[in-house]
């Protein structure tokens, strides 16, 4: 029995779930009736508070005047009066999806969020998502308003997320979430690097009483991928001046298999495609304590340990014979990549009021991620040929990163006679130190051809990199007249490795009356290249090809034409309309355009002899690869192109009351999105750094639109929720693996993925006042992505287009869940 199952017996008997979430949490942005907007006092009101204000999750979801903290530094800003489009998703909605992690829950709830069908290698373990069709590194993730550190594991293989080291949302316990604020607007001028597509701010629970337990158990229609998630959340009072909130969580998911018949064996026995096997344990704490009526000590943190195993491609007996390993594996073998991981993030701070009329917040946050790479059921073919011995288990190296961030934020309202409300002035500074390291593996893991499945990191690849970041910002917001609000923000950042960045933002909103309002934003932004993008290097060999990465700043990359990396820069424009045609009908329409220059892509491509020479310059010996030299390729990160992303978000929410027949909350939300790639850079030899496949990864792999619509019916003890998700079409340029175009870097198979429909359904029943049970299914019809032809999949290891960001390839997921409140 796995040790992690120690919590399962406690809850498995209850495990059969609450209220279906599939609903999009549409932002409640009703325009304010000008007659109800009263001019604020010329003197700011100070509310004496001896205990923290604690909101229930139901209040968070239902309260129309929910105060928001994302995209604004005005403490009175609400979702109903937000200048920028913002969606609030309650923690109960996340936990009611049947998903055991935040990323998968958000995909069910927000049309602006998508994710890859399935990643490869360590990239398949990381919970990366796309906001508005951009990559994961272009969305900033905050926890309680503080910058969250990123993962150390980089997405290596060709995909829409290639090269990213995003925040891994699976490392934040879903049980700890009070609600999530999704700012769908550029915000680099407010928060710094990465906030090009928007901001996801995870607000942690702060209830000071009560215990909540939840258990979720489920599996896929194919009969595999059993998943169990058990969590506990408890709140406590710290005297009558503070609170302490704790969460603990366990999750296990079995691997799935989504491969076809392997022509080498005549069996469906390749386990390389599907979700990895993952076991995760995490804990979280959040506390606040008022030292005085005006000064509060606060802190929060998470620690997560995760063990993940990912199967590499099958080495059939014929392949094993060609590699000279029949003596070790007479029946063939399939290597398994392992990645034990420790992730932590802790914040401690003081905040106060009325210090010479200023509110202030001083905090320090330290977070990091450490990944240990391993491989078992493997071998080093060259070592075995030379000595007759090879280990079957290897230590491949490690990836580590750490981020230490210190913030000082100051705010005050200033009464000016010519403004309708006080001018809110905010300013502050930030100092951050980033570190990133790669540790080399054991010698036999990289000797000649190295370990099968994933070659170990070499001493030449090992790196210890660090940088210092300093920033200062200023923010002004006010109501100029009764119905017109304006926000201005500016920020300066200095990176000691890539230079300076200056960004600005102006936002405005005008409410004509309580039925209609307009808002708009113009901003500039940037994203600094990550230390991983600048320094990562690796080499991977499979039975049919060898590929890898060369560090962007290395002599080998420069020999191929790399100029080094510079920051991405962006210009964002958005315009929106808020409509309230009926008392319980709220509609929001927001269009946007995002220009990004110097976009960092894995585009410095070389193959054949040039790739072999580049690897040699980097100290990598490719002579052990048994395939043809033409199947050897390499890449380096470069500022390869500019893009223009245009789109439209529409959300609507309506509540209806049918008396004794119950109430229904209807919701609908859709995102339209298109990215155009232009101004493609060229190497010193005049060759474009992007080919057609790499262009499609940025422009057509994300659905052209995504629609979520449905409703939740409540009557007495029953709850029934039904939601339909429609994923728009995508197109992919797939690599040929056989025929005259095999492994061509110029000719690709153009795959068209037609729209796909997914139905989510849940039925819940309140058995006791404390106990809710539910039976549900995500993708109850067991829909799958488009099939791909066999000549684009090595030995039929891919049945579906795994580069697309439509629905998951896993198929229908059915679950039972129990929620117990004490």
Automatic annotation (TrEMBL):
Full protein name:
TonB-dependent receptor
TonB-dependent receptor plug domain sequence ranges: 82-199
A Pfam family this protein belongs to? TonB_dep_Rec_b-barrel
Key words of the record: Cell outer membrane, Membrane, Signal, TonB box, Transmembrane, Transmembrane beta strand, Transport
Q: Could you tell me where this protein is found in the cell?
A: Cell outer membrane
Q: Family per UniProt?
A: Belongs to the TonB-dependent receptor family.
Topology in the lipid bilayer is annotated as: Multi-pass membrane protein
Signal peptide positions (record) = 1-25
Q: Which Gene3D superfamilies does its entry note?
A: TonB-dependent receptor, beta-barrel domain, TonB-dependent receptor, plug domain
Which InterPro entries does the annotation name?
A: Beta-barrel_TonB, Beta-barrel_TonB_sf, Plug_dom, Plug_dom_sf, TonB-dep_rcpt-like
Chain coiled-coil ranges: none
Which source organism? Gluconobacter kondonii
Q: Which residue ranges does the record assign to the TonB-dependent receptor-like beta-barrel domain?
A: 299-780
The reply to whether Phosphoprotein figures as a keyword in the UniProt entry is: no
Q: Where are the residues of the annotated region Disordered?
A: 254-274
Lineage from the top down? Answer: Bacteria, Pseudomonadati, Pseudomonadota, Alphaproteobacteria, Acetobacterales
